[in-house]
C-alpha cells in the first residue's frame, strides 16, 4: 500500500495525472478543490472514494482513495478544526484511522498552523492509539520554529505523538532528527535556495514495521506544479510480512 501527501497549490484535477504515476492507494491533498469541481479526465484512474473538507471550494483538503479502499469520516470530527479530519480507511490489507492534515485555519485567533495540529491531537486523543493510526499531510510546521514558551509547538506535537508510539515515517526510515531534515518538502516561492520540511506521515508502531520506503520528491521535478513536493510512503503487504 502507498500513501502520498502532496500540497498541490490548487487545481488538483489538472495535476492528478502526474501524481497518479506513483500508484497511490491514498492521497492526502491540501489546497484541493471541492468534490463538485474534482472531475478527472476519463483516461486516468478513477478513485474508489473521496472526501473533502473546507470552506473555500477552490482550496480545501482532499482525501482520495484508489483500488477499492473506502474512506468514512469518523463522527467525532470537529468542524472548528476544519481541515484536520479523522477518517476510517477500510478495504485494504489492514484497516486504520487516518488523520488527514492541512494545518491552515486563518480564522483561529489561537494560531493557524501547528496550533491546529496541537488542538486536533488533543481533541481526538481517544482515537490516537498506538496501533493502526496514521497522520498525513501538510503540518505547516518544523522544530526550527519552536518557541519554547508556546504551548503546542512542533516539538510538543512530536513528543505528544511519541508517547502514543506514533512517529514520523520519514524520520524513522531515514534516521533524521526533527529540525535537521536532509530532504525538504517545501520551497518558499518555489525557490530551491529556500527549503523547509513541512509535510509528514506519522504512523503507529505496528504500521511503522510495514514501512518499506519513504521518498521525498525533488524540486526539479515538482516545482512546475507546486511549492511543495510529495512525501511517498510505501508499506509492505500482508504477504510481504509473512
Task: Describe the overall structure.
The longest helix has 10 residues, at 114-123. Helix 2 (114-123) runs parallel beside helix 3. The chain is α+β, with helices and mostly antiparallel strands. It is globular and about 50 Å long. Helix 1 (16-20) links the parallel strand 1 (2-5) and strand 2. The model has no long low-confidence stretch (mean pLDDT 95). It has one domain (2-241): Endonuclease/exonuclease/phosphatase (Deoxyribonuclease I, Chain A, 4-Layer Sandwich). The protein has helices at 16-20, 114-123, 154-163, 169-174, 205-208, 219-222, 238-241, and strands at 2-5, 26-32, 49-53, 60-65, 70-73, 84-90, 96-102, 133-138, 166-168, 186-187, 195-196, 199-204, 211-216, 231-235. A 6-stranded mixed β-sheet has the order 3-4-2-1-14-13.
Question: In brief, what are we looking at here?
Answer:
This protein is of the alpha+beta class and 242 residues long. Helix content is 18%, strand content 29%. A hairpin with a 7-residue loop joins strand 10 (186-187) and strand 11 (195-196).
Which fold name is given in CATH as the topology? Deoxyribonuclease I, Chain A
How would you describe the oligomerization state of the chains in this entry?
single chain
Number of domains: 1
The CATH superfamily is identified as Endonuclease/exonuclease/phosphatase
- Rounded to the nearest angstrom, the distance between the terminal CA atoms is 15 Å
* CATH structural architecture: 4-Layer Sandwich
| Overall number of strands | 14
Mean pLDDT across the residues is: 95
Kindly provide the radius of gyration, computed on alpha-carbon positions and rounded to a whole number of angstroms: 16 Å
Summarize the main sheet: 6 strands, mixed
CATH class: Alpha Beta
- Side-by-side strand order of the widest sheet: 3-4-2-1-14-13
Unreliable sequence segments: none
Q: Helix content range of the residues, please?
A: 10-25%
Approximate shape: globular
Amino acid at each position: 500500500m502507498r500513501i502520498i501527501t502532496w500540497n498541490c497549490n490548487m487545481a488538483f484535477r489538472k495535476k492528478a495525472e502526474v501524481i497518479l504515476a506513483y500508484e497511490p492507494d491514498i492521497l492526502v491533498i491540501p489546497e484541493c478543490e471541492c468534490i463538485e469541481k474534482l472531475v478527472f479526465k476519463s483516461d486516468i484512474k478513477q478513485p474508489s472514494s473521496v472526501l473533502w473538507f473546507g470552506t473555500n471550494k477552490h482550496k480545501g483538503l482532499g482525501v482520495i482513495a484508489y483500488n477499492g479502499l473506502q474512506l468514512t469520516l469518523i463522527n467525532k470530527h470537529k468542524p472548528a478544526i476544519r481541515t484536520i479530519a479523522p477518517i476510517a480507511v477500510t478495504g485494504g490489507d489492514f484497516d486504520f484511522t487516518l488523520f488527514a492534515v492541512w494545518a491552515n485555519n486563518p480564522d483561529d485567533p489561537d494560531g493557524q498552523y501547528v496550533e491546529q495540529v496541537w488542538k486536533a491531537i488533543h481533541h481526538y486523543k481517544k482515537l490516537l492509539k498506538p496501533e493502526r493510526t496514521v497522520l498525513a499531510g501538510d503540518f505547516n510546521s518544523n522544530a526550527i520554529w519552536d518557541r519554547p514558551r508556546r504551548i503546542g509547538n512542533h516539538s510538543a506535537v512530536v513528543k505528544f505523538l511519541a508517547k502514543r508510539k506514533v512517529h514520523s515515517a520519514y524520520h524513522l526510515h531515514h534516521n533524521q532528527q526533527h529540525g535537521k531534515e536532509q530532504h525538504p518538502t517545501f520551497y518558499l516561492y518555489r525557490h530551491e535556495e529556500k527549503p523547509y520540511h513541512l509535510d509528514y506521515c506519522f504512523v503507529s508502531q505496528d504500521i511503522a514495521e510495514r514501512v518499506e520506503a519513504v521518498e521525498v520528491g525533488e524540486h526539479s521535478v515538482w516545482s512546475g506544479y507546486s511549492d511543495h513536493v510529495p512525501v511517498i510512503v510505501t508499506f509492505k503487504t500482508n504477504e510481504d510480512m509473512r
